[in-house]
Amino acid sequence: MRISTAFIFQRGANAIQDKSAQLSRSQEYIAAGKKVLSPSDNPAAAARILDLNGFIDTAEQYQRNIGTLKSRLELQESTLDGVANVLQRTHELAVQGNNDTIGPEGRAAIADEIDVLNDQLLSLANTRDANDEYLFSGFQRDAQPFTRAGATFTYNGDHGQRELQIAADRRVADASNGFDAFMKIPASGGGFQDAFTTLQKLSDDLRADNTVSTSIDDIQLALDNTLRVRTKGGAGLNTVIGQQDVNEGFLVSMKARLSEAEDLDYANALTQYQQDLLALQAAQQSFVKIQNLSLFNYLQ
Amino acid sequence: MPSILSIGVSGLNSSKRALTTTGHNIANVNTDGYSRQRVIDGTREPERSGAGWQGTGVRATSIERAYNAFVVSQVRSTNSSVSELTTYSSYANAIDDVYADPAVGLAPVVQDFFNAAQGVADDPSSVASRQLMLSNAQTMVDRFHYLDARNQDMRHQIDRDMDNTIDSINSLAENIAQINAAIIDARAGSNNRPPNDLLDQRDQMLDTLSQQVDITTFEQDDGAMNVFIGNGQTLVIGNDSRSLETRANALDPSRKEVVYADGSAAGQVISGALSGGELGGMLRFRGELLDTSQNQLGLIATGIAERVNQQQNLGLDLNGVFGANFFTQAAIPTRNATTNTGTGSVTASLTDVNDVVPSDYQLRYDGAFQYSLIRLSDNTTTTINTGGGSPYVTAPIDGFTLSISNGAVVGDSMLIQPTRQAADHIGLLLNDTRQIAAAAPLRAAEATDANGNPLNSGNAAITQPATNSTANLPLAGVGGDIMLTFDPNAGGAGVPGFNVSGGLSTTLLYDPASDAAGKTFTLASRGGAEFQLSGTPATGDSFVIADNSAGNGDNRNALSLAGLQGVKGLLGGTASFQDGYSQLVSDVGTKARHAEINAESQRGLLRQAQAQREEVSGVNLDEEAANLLKYQQAYQASAQVISAAQTLFDTLIAATRR
User: Terminus of chain B with fewer CB atoms < 10 Å: N or C?
Assistant: First the structure.
């Protein structure tokens, strides 16, 4: 086979150019620390990286939703804890007041304390969350849910209950509405009676020296209802915390897959880099050796 | 009897010619496109003698270049492929890098927008979360504009590159025609002996030309090389050349096409017929990748605008009114071809973004009220017959309808681009955080007295109603709240159900004995309100469905807005917005990669072909050194022959002197 002198040079130069392009590419990967520098390196991996980033961002948003929901449900729990304490204390006072040994003055004093407790209950029912919104007003977060006019208590909220997205196909209810928590409480005498009216009646009856055994039952029912709502919230909280762990696990595995898809394996990359370097040196050396060979060197 | 002297001289001359040619070869060892030359010698005419035919020495028949036409044409065609593929992949990489870059790509900003929608759902009355959603929407819109502008830049770049390439093709064609003329002259003046160096120069030009565009060549008997491009259009014939130019596409004037100047006014559009070379690479990139990617980007923009607007329209904003459009959606652009002679026209409107295909369409009038709608991405044709109606509105085709007005002349065409400019046209319409429609329009409650105390005695419950339209909403305009009251005989004696009163009067059959686990109802005439009743109601127990006024803590519509992200509502229900975008990135990446791999293998073939050409035509200095020695020795030997003739002559003189 004939081979032209220019082509010997050209081929040597091509080889050096190819190897040095390879070397510079290897170096680029190492500098970036990435497996895929451009989608054309690995189109499937590039699309997968986009998808994985999307999954991760969405899951992180769910975790933020969970954070918001958790703080609201915790606020509801501590508020209802306060409500339960108020009702518990009222129950004790009612039992005391129901005792014949206490005279009308003692009952009036107890009624006074119950009035204070009722104010406290009302203020708990009108609790606002971190965003200065009423916790127990359903969809109408700006409306003060409970108002009183004399002995009449009114719920101004609605029966809506918000849900928050905590996973792709999972929503969990936000804080309960005031209707469920304070209004729809079965009364011992049939029908329903709200917690405030129960306390109001109790204090009125104590002052009027009437028997309060019905009220004691009603307070117990209000306490039961508080416990029910609180348990529901607690169950929600448990669900949310469980989901938070699931999401965290999902995030860890997605991040591992992302890292697998996009992060460079340095051991491999450095080995490749060494090989490319060696190949370039070999190409350079062989070029120098070959270009020294010429018959003209011997024709002196 | 021939003269020894003359034989010696012929040998001397021949050796000198060979030495000169060897010198020429050595001198041109680094000349691009140079083909090694050699002298073809032959014996001179012999003379008849008594002993038979007596040789008379050597003569040169011609000087030829070492040349293999097949190998040369192989070099040319692989060269053409390599430059096509390299051009293609460099363009493709330029846009793909942009698409996949986390800092400037679309994926992160779409994600941020929907995350912000979740933020609004978390806290619908918070100004801060609403503000974040609006600013993220603006960022997303800006990103669409940016990406579309990059596509547009690429289009302009291609237009400029096309002009430059065509200039260079035209000047090469002229030069080849000139050199053809020189070759014809040189051959005619030298008894058809090849003008080797001119031929090399012409080959060199053809090589350069084939890097611009794929050519076919045909050599005439007089030595001229004819060059053809496209579907056999003549670029060079003999000493005459034709030229190419770029002109605006008749259907889409923003698009340049390559036109072959065939003498007619319109010229011949040959963009579609060209392949190979840089020109082929850029045309293929534009038709195969740029158009599709810009349309697909537009499809995602259309999808987001359309879906978000639809959902936003279904919800209530903080002012208690139905949400206004979130994003601008321009009408689908249509355009009459510049070559149309009729007055027909067409408009298009979107019907369902899920059915939209990322392609442009050509509507062509075929006569007798018959039109062909051609989907340009795959040439699928739909025939439309208006039957003379004008304007005639078609059934939905690929997610849009056409309204065609009479007046077209056979052959007239119109361009319809459902998605091409959507990424450019999308804009943010909302400017007030209160305008985000986070709430649903209706809410349900069990009946209460004026103070909110429950009135029902049964344990039946109602879920919050979900709507899918705004029909007859708000309720205040059509008779007010809707009341559902349980009656054991609502549907006739012994058939229990709810009597519906208020603005609507109907009966919802509900049997607590079988339906207590939950039965779903829909009020089609009230926004399609869908809700579920469950439990066991007592006679007279009621539920109220009312306008959700002041429901600023309601996040139901915000949840639906955020949920759009996961809905596979593009490309026939196969892709979410993110899927559509990933597809775009991987599609462009795959094509770029494919072109790179092909370019690499073609480059290998090119090197092989070049090696073959060099094997035949290249100068090897060692070989030339050996030839130098060989011809030097031959020269010395011929000189020796002359010297022998001299000696013979001297001997003769000496013999006759006596």
Answer: C
- Number of other residues whose CB lies within 10 A of the CB of residue B351: 15
* Nearest neighbour of A47 by CB, restricted to B118, B548, B582: B582
Asked if B487 contacts B498 with a C-beta cutoff of 8 angstroms, the reply is yes
Option in A46, A140, A161 nearest B550 (CB) = A140
B565 pLDDT higher than 90: yes
Partners of residue B114 in chain A, C-beta under 8 Å: 58, 61
Nearest CA in chain A to B32: A6
Give the tens place of pLDDT for each residue, B477-513. 998 999 999 999 999 999 999 999 988 889 999 999 9
**Which amino acid does the sequence have at B336?**
N
| Residue A186 DSSP one-character state | B
CB-CB under 8 Å, B618 with A7: yes
Helices (DSSP H) in chain A: which residue ranges? 5-32, 43-97, 104-125, 178, 195-207, 213-262, 266-291
Spatial separation of the C-alpha atoms in residues B426 and B299, rounded to whole Å: 11
Tell me what the mean pLDDT of segment A60-86 comes to: 95
Model pLDDT, residue B358: 94
Tokens 């082509």, located at residue: A7
Task: Tell me the chain B residues in contact with residue A164 when contact means C-beta distances shorter than 8 Å.
Answer: 121-122, 555
Q: Do A53 and B111 touch (CB under 8 A)?
A: yes
Backbone region of residue B369 per phi and psi (left: phi > 0; alpha: psi in -120 to 50; beta: other values): left
Strands (E), B341-496: 345-350, 361-367, 370-375, 380-385, 392-393, 400-405, 413-416, 427-428, 442-446, 461-462, 482-487
pLDDT at B254 over 90: no
- Give contacts of A142 with chain B, Cβ < 8 Å: 125, 550, 552-553
Residue A75: pLDDT band with limits 50, 70, 90: very high
Q: Which of A139, A174, A293, A299 to mutate against chain B (most B CBs within 10 Å)?
A: A139
Among B203, B177, B179, residue whose Cα is nearest residue B68: B203
Q: Cα(B554)–Cα(B125) distance, rounded to whole angstroms? A: 8
Answer yes or no: is pLDDT of B1 > 60: no
d(CA B445, CA A139) in angstroms, rounded, equals 12
Rounded to an integer, the average pLDDT of A45-64 is 93
**In 3D, which of A39, A260, A251, A127 has the Cα closest to residue B593?**
A39
Residues of B in contact with A138 (CB under 8 A): 443, 553
Residue partners of B540: CB distance under 8 A and separation at least 6: B485, B486, B487
- pTM of this structure: 0.90
